[in-house]
Specification:
- It contains 9 helices and 4 strands, in the order αααβαββααβααα.
- The chain is of the alpha+beta class.
- The chain has a domain at about 15-215: 2-Layer Sandwich (Beta-Lactamase).
- Helix 7 runs parallel beside helix 9.
- It is rod-shaped, with a radius of gyration of 48 Å.
- Residues about 1-5 and about 330-333 have low confidence and may be disordered.
- Bound molecules: heme C.
- Heme C binds next to helix 2, helix 3, helix 5 and strand 4.
- Keywords: Membrane, Transmembrane, Transmembrane helix.
- This is DUF3365 domain-containing protein.
- It comes from Nitratidesulfovibrio liaohensis.
């Protein structure tokens, strides 16, 4: 019963089903990736904001609490950098004491800084230029690769105010300690309203990106494993319920049309997939039936004529007239 062309319907079904599963998996993984990336982004942004709020709190504490209190305890001409400069304290706490740089990156930088350690690098220059070109810009954010690691970055411009001029304006006004420590050139000569530089926070996202990749791989492989299982089940059922019965039907045709005259039907059974071949064979079978019926009807009609003629002949014979010969028609005209 088996024929190389059999199983074709199964192949078509298999292919269609596989395409659906693949497409479904693709859409599923694509949206999952989108969603996880969005979560990652929200998380990185929230963390960067958190670092910023810590920096602001610290700066505010130094400016409003520590500095005035220290000022009350030291002579007027003295200046205690470690307790009175917000930039110094924030740099110490958030840059130098930030032992685990893999957690976050903080920089307070300038194009021409007082402390050479706060010199803006290429990326920071680019951001500062951005702030310089657009005075209304409050933040710059995005993803950048820093030292080969992808970071979510958040930057805010720092503008000089009148208070700052004490240490950033004319060196003549500046505390002696400051001049001794940094010299009278760097960090001076600014005016209120000038762009001082920027505060910059970078959150490394490589680990989160890695986690997203792992999650995608895990979900992807479990989805396709489950899909393969369902696929197999469907194929088994399909085989049992559809393909097997189609083959039985084909078998019925083969068994019942074995004479050479039925070749046209049997030949059709070898065309296309099971359903196609059955349809073709059925078409041929129907044509076969119609032909047979026409023949039968014709034969029946002729039979009446034949019977009538024969009766006439017989009656003529009975009355002594020689009967006509050669006028009796055969059954199929
Ligand atoms: C009491 C003196 C003092 C005052 C007031 C002061 N600064 Fe500074 N600032 C410094 C010192 C000292 C440094 C260098 C700190 C270090 O070593 O990192 C500095 C550094 C900075 C830096 C980092 C880049 C660089 O030049 O090293 C920025 C930006 C900055 N200050 C902005 C400001 C702004 C804005 C204000 C006013 C809101 C201000 N500062 C007020 C003393 C001062």
């Amino acid at each position: 019963m088996s024929h190389p062309l059999h199983g074709k319907i199964q192949h078509k079904f298999l292919l269609g089903l596989a395409c659906i599963f693949l497409l479904l998996g693709g859409v599923f993984l694509f949206s999952l990736n989108l969603h996880l990336r969005e979560m990652l982004h929200i998380e990185a942004e929230a963390k960067a904001e958190l670092v910023f709020s810590h920096v602001s709190s610290l700066q505010q504490y130094v400016r409003d609490t520590l500095r005035p209190s220290v000022r009350g305890h030291i002579p007027d001409e003295d200046f205690l950098l470690e307790a009175m400069s917000t930039s110094f304290v924030t740099r110490k706490v958030f840059v130098e004491l930030n032992g685990q740089r893999d957690q976050y990156l903080y920089r307070r930088v300038s194009m021409s800084p007082r402390n050479p350690a706060s010199q803006a690098n290429d990326l920071e220059r680019e951001l500062i230029t951005g702030f310089r070109n657009d005075g209304d810009l409050r933040t710059l954010r995005g993803y950048r690769v820093i030292d080969g690691v992808e970071h979510y970055i958040l930057a805010r411009p720092v503008y000089f105010e009148a208070d700052c001029m004490y240490c950033h304006g004319d060196p003549a006004d500046a505390p002696r300690v400051l001049l001794e420590r940094y010299g009278a050139v760097r960090g001076f000569g600014h005016q209120a309203g000038d762009l001082a530089g920027m505060d910059f926070v970078g959150m490394p996202v490589d680990r989160s990106v890695q986690q997203v990749r792992e999650a995608i791989t895990l979900f992807g492989s479990s989805f396709y494993a489950a899909a393969a299982g369902v696929f197999l089940l469907i194929i088994i059922f399909f085989n049992r319920l559809v393909v097997a019965n189609l083959r039985r039907l084909t078998g019925i045709f083969r068994q019942n049309f074995q004479s050479p005259g039925d070749r046209s039907i049997l030949n059709r059974l070898d065309e296309g997939d099971e359903i196609n071949s059955l349809m073709e064979a059925f078409g041929a079978f129907a044509a076969h039936l119609r032909e047979a019926r026409v023949k039968l009807e014709d034969y029946a009609a002729n039979l009446e004529d034949k019977v009538r003629e024969r009766t006439e002949d017989l009656s003529l014979e009975a009355s002594g007239t020689p009967h006509r010969r050669g006028t009796v028609r055969g059954p199929a005209g």
